[in-house]
Amino acid sequence: MTTDRRSFLKLAALTAATTAASTAGASSGIDPALAKRMGPGVRWDKAPCRFCGTGCHVQVGVQNNKVVAIAGDVHADVNKGLLCMKGYHVGLILYGEDRLTKPLLRKNGELTPVSWDEALDVIADRVELDPKGFAFYGSGQWTIPEGYAAQKFMKGGIASNHIDPNARLCMASAVTGFIATYGVDEPNGCYQDLDDCDVIITWGNNPAEMHPVLFSRFMDRRSRGEKITLIDMSTRRTRTSAHADHFLRFNPQSDLAIANGILHLLLRNDSWDKDFVEKHVNFRALEADKPSLKGEAMDFEAWKTALDPYTPEYVSEISGVSVEDLHMLADLFGDRDKKITSLWCMGANQHTRGTAMNCLIHGVHLFSGHIGRPGDNPTSLTGQPSACGTAREVGTLAHALPGGRLVAKEPHRTQSEEFWNVPAGRIDPKPGKHTVAMFKSWSTPKSEEGGNIHTIWVQVTNPGQTLPNRNLLMEPGVKDPDKFLICSDVYPTATTEIADLVLPSSMWVEKSGVFGNSERRTQQWFKQVDPPGQARDDCWQIIAVAHKLFERGFEGMKDKDGKFLFHMDNPNGGTFANWDWNRYYDQNVDEHLFEEYRQFTRLKHKDLAPYSEYVKTRGLRWPVVEQPDGTWRETRYRFAEFDDPYVKPGSTHDFYHSTTGDGRAQVWFRPYEAPPEVPDEEYPMWLCTGRVIEHWHSGTMTGRVPQLRGSMPAAYCEINRQDAANLGVSNGDMVVVESRRGAVELPAWIDGRGSPPPGTVFVPFFDERVKINFVTLHEHDPFSKQPDYKKCAVRVRRLEA
Amino acid sequence: MSSPPVNPLTVLLAVVFGVSLIGFLRGTDTNDYDFETPLRDLAEGDHGVVRPAVPYWEMRNSPRGDGPVLAADLAALEGAVPSRTDAVDLTGTSKREALADRAEHRAYFGAPPVIPHPVRQQTEAECKACHENGVRISGHQAPPYPHEAYVSCTQCHAMAEPALPWEETTPADPRAVDNSFLGVASPTEGERWTGVAPPVIPHMTFMRERCVSCHGPNGRDAMKSTHPDRQSCEQCHAADASIEQRPGGR
After folding, report:
1. A199 and A135 belong to one structural domain
2. How far is A87 from chain B (nearest CA, A)?
């Protein structure tokens, strides 16, 4: 503990200026005696918020090694001092009374405290049992150094590619959409679009609750007297709809028809951007035999013909959106003087046709020329704080290597092996198992085909609550004695409940970190308080297991020269013992890993600046390019000559990672197709799942904040008044929501937080007691492998007391 | 949607809103709120004599004289909107009590307060009715918001009571554990250079641009300005750069 204190104080000295702030005297709702004990000084430092992909910066007030206050960071470009209710209460997530503080091993069915050393040995044993059957399941909440360490541990050390993030369930279709369209992942625009646009279109997105600070960033322009038009397209009425100028309710899955209908009308009205299309766009369709993200060229005439059926009348029939509203949308896109920003997130991504839907949103913007100037861009949002920075950029996916590389590509493997200084051929060329396949394999007996995954190490996420169709993907593995689940987390969760080994982790400002948000912004923070008990950093856990294996002589944990895979030089000579927790903060491990990772970022022109630059700023948007005077310049608008240094001079727009190698983006033809499961006589209603503003992800953190839990304590079934009347159900009456896969019981809410149309119910997934993912569908998009949590068929009945 | 200047019409409107709020509070003595049933629906059909009041969130768009609201006894609302020229009584509560009362709805000094009453779930249209300029009715005080008008009030302000209009019946929430977070306390007073100098502002001023929110006639007694008629607070009261997020601060 004394070492911890010392390293903490050292870090404190490293960080920004400390200032005495508030004086505590007789106080407040807090016990005045306690308040006095808090002492006079509060030290403030920056950190990105722990929750969503918006990436707000907060100022963290620390006193006596505890977080005591939070303030919106007025110097942060993302949020300009404003936060949402989760951000203002983010400091409280550290202090739930049931924090995990000891490693726990299941012995005779009971989780029993063990030493860290024993825990590390157990993991090393599981690796040695069969390295190729060891899998890692991480998340978009991993910091960049954590994800990078996990990636190197698995692909460069164990030589198993079975590493995937929960981001697979969250934004994988956004990635495939970007790659199919531009040849490279992540948005070309940035949040400045929200300041400059005339029109916002939300495609199945509810930013008023899910990205509140971004929602305010454009809606508050109205308070300042600006005119801004909000068009909300959604399958149910939400808080976003309440602010909309046009609310377009569409039937589930029909978003594809709507996008094609807009393209149809742009053609019919001859209002598409001929100059832009002529210079910057190719037309593309899936290959008939072996469909891929590359697709094959499609003749413009054939593309036009393919869109012939999508008349407003036909689209209106499929979608339920009126013919007039479809014309309104097409007329907007047909007007080049209007600046249009599209926003989407889970609605388009958690979709069995998610890749297609993402491509179509980009396609509408490209075909109408609404791209590449401030305010006029398709902007995909993410749900996790580092889904972009870690899952997508570090590439903690079963098929990827850091910096946009692929395990299947020989030069990419070779280069990664060089950066890691591991022997040639270390990296397995065969992609590993993606999330659904990973858990399917873990839930298949080892004697059966496809059952080779014996152990999954879960960090920073909660698959016990968030995987779809849990009866299929988890329950058999839980019961199978050959299968082993390791879970690093901060609180007891639906996953620790079934884990065989539980590791207590540090969280948020109890460790240093780097996140990458939805607008390509990389944001750094320093450790500010100590973790409780024996909780330790996830990154340390990975390095410590690696070192345990290294000590045992495991070849994979040695580099080419026989040194430890995570070898770091000690500036005073010798080796920095980064596997020793008492020494872990002697040096900045994050900086070591980040500088190593930086080498990977150039290939796809996602250049990152040195770590020290991020210490000075509230984040920088890549590519960050060094200037002749030695300063580092961020890029707001990619592929646009006025801002992106990599655009060919004179070309105005240059999609320099084009899949066709000609600097052009791809506009795809992707037809509307019915979803895999539609309501029928037996299961007559749609089920949609999602979040509420109070809670984030599976609610393990926000559920322990009294103010947030107090506001929204339990899950509910949002149901239309008419359906409720038919079922004889009123507010608070218990109903059963049942699919072919499972059932849950919960109270009905009529015209509550949202209003679904007749025939649809909505259930939020934050409540651990109502595991709605026993009900959802594991069917997924063929390219992104992302499941559809937004629509499946259910029946709802009143629960008789 | 910029804030209108304070004028007699605004005051009148506030009074009108106040009337409906009283009516509302009287009609809902129990906690049996049903915000989500459009009140007008109740009048539809063959109810004969029932003529509902205009919901207060619809009053802005309601023509004057619609409904029985204006026929209410305005005299009963005297003092609902205190004037800046009223005499100030600082003897009501101690400052300690006032600060404790204020802290009741905040996780720490600087946190957005939770909303101590039910609100509609899908729109914030009605928040402004009371909180734009503030009202005080029957001991209940609706402070004016201290910051510029943001459109999405429930973005920052959570509800003190569950949004769900029923008692929880599901098994106990395993996450409903104690939270040992101890928030930073409120400052009690600003420093004075001499005994008679105006105190400096002892807290951050960001998002607290409207001093009257806490220190105006609608504020808690011991926190009120003794001179509410003076409009330009920062003329005499300096902000403390060391606690602001500005150059020279943090």
Report:
1. no
2. 9
CB within 8 Å: A21 and B242: yes
CATH number for the domain spanning A691: value is 2.40.40.20
Among chain B residues, CA nearest to A705 = B179
CATH assignment at residue A463 = 3.40.50.740
- pLDDT value at A554 more than 70: yes
Does residue A3 form part of some domain?
no
Closest CA–CA distance from residue B137 to any residue of chain A (Å): 24
Q: Is the pLDDT of residue A184 over 90?
A: yes
Interface residue of B184, B204, B206, B208 to substitute, partner A, most A CBs within 10 Å: B184
Tens-digit pLDDT profile for residues A89-112: 999 999 999 999 999 999 999 999
- How does residue A23 score in pLDDT terms, banded at 50, 70 and 90? very low
User: Cα separation of A190 and A622, whole Å?
Assistant: 11
Residues of chain A contacting residue B248, judged by C-beta atoms under 8 Å apart:
none
For A29-63, write each residue's pLDDT tens digit. 333 333 333 345 788 899 999 999 999 999 999 99
Contacts of A694 in chain B (CB under 8 A): 158
Are A195 and A334 in a shared domain? Answer: yes
Residues A399, A352 within the same domain:
no
Neighbour-count burial of B176, counting CB atoms closer than 10 A to its CB (0-12 exposed, 13-18 middle, 19+ buried): middle
A368, part of any domain: yes
Chain A residues within 8 A of B243 when measuring between CB atoms: 19, 21-22
- Which of A357, A385, A413 represents a domain boundary (last residue)? A385
Q: Same structural domain for residues A480 and A589? A: yes
Of A584, A601, A618, at which residue does a domain stop?
A: A601
Min CA distance, A491 vs chain B (Å)? 9
Specify the amino acid at residue A364.
V
Query: Does the residue A492 lie in any domain?
Result: yes
The count of residues in chain A is: 801
Q: How high is the mean pLDDT of chain A?
A: 93
Nearest CA in chain B to A752: B121
CB contact under 8 A, B112 and A23: no
In chain A, the number of structural domains is: 5
A557 and A421 both lie in a single domain: yes
First-to-last alpha carbon distance for chain B, in angstroms, is 33
- With beta carbons less than 8 A apart as the criterion, state whether A688 and A765 touch: no
Q: What residues of A are labeled active site?
A: 86, 170-171, 346, 383-384
Q: Find chain A residues with C-beta within 8 A of B205's C-beta.
A: none
State the Cα–Cα distance between residues A75 and A57, nearest whole angstrom. 8
Distance CA A692, CA A708 (A): 11
Say yes or no: A595 and A614 in one domain: no
| Pair (A38, A79) in one structural domain | yes
Of the candidates A20, A711, A754, which has its C-beta nearest B162's C-beta?
A: A711
- Structural contact between residues A445 and A451, judged by C-beta atoms closer than 8 angstroms: yes
B4: nearest CA partner in chain A: A223
Higher pLDDT, A17 or A240: A240
Chain A positions touching B123 (Cβ under 8 A) are 239, 242
Q: How many residues does chain B have?
A: 250
The confidence score (pLDDT) of residue B228 equals 81
Same domain, A696 and A790: yes
Residue of B100, B179, B245 lying closest to A92 (CB–CB): B179
Assess whether the previous peptide bond of A623 is cis (omega < 30° from 0). Answer: yes
What are the C-alpha distances in Å from B153 to residues A212, A492, A766, B113?
Answer: 10, 33, 22, 11
